[in-house]
Amino acid sequence: MPRPAAETAGRLPEPGVQFHKSGLLFTAKHSLGMWEKVGSNLFSFADSSTWWIADWLVYGESTFHDRYREAVQRTSLSYQTLRNYTWVARRFPLPRRRQGLSFSHHLEVVALDRPEQDYWLRKAEEANWSRNRLRGQIRSSKLAREGEITQAETGSGGPMDSIEPAPADAVLAGSAPEAPLLALQLSAEDLEMFKRAAGKESEPVETWAAEMLRRAAAGS
Hints:
Blueprint: H1 5-10, E1 17-20, E2 23-26, H2 32-64, H3 66-72, H4 79-91, H5 103-109, H6 114-127, H7 131-154, H8 188-200, H9 205-218
Antiparallel strand pairs: 1-2
Helix pairs in contact: 2-3, 2-4, 8-9
């Protein structure tokens, strides 16, 4: 007989701990090791539930179409958060998801090309990077590449060696070339407005803007 999802994904519940909708209650004295185990299971369960919601959304969107929005409105999450969930789930089918990394790790690379996604997720899993560490490494690599392009254009300075960019062999053989950049001219007021909107979703403004453009094109 299959075990309940709560037990198979997050190893919940634990003896001596009662789980309620509005909180949990320790009903027995636990050792430090047991307390840490409970916390680890909670985080694992929370991350699994995000993937579950994301896959639930994808199924509803593809199966029920117009009735999907009505059901989604009953959730407590913002529309943009739910769209992010759907975006990540579609870009990362179950076989491509790395069990050793969180949903947030996958969200950090979702806007990248597939070869770069695989490269950075592999690096994060091998080095046991946190989500924030992964974000920092990607940002550093991007700045390094931009610096190398600027130096090549101006012919000034030597190569930047303080930040290691993603190696060229990270791109799989036969894959598509890097997507072209789209330059937008924005007023300072518009840029600040976009940054605030992206910040509400804990997203880089570039990722947020790309998703907004993608949604607008899909609805045209």
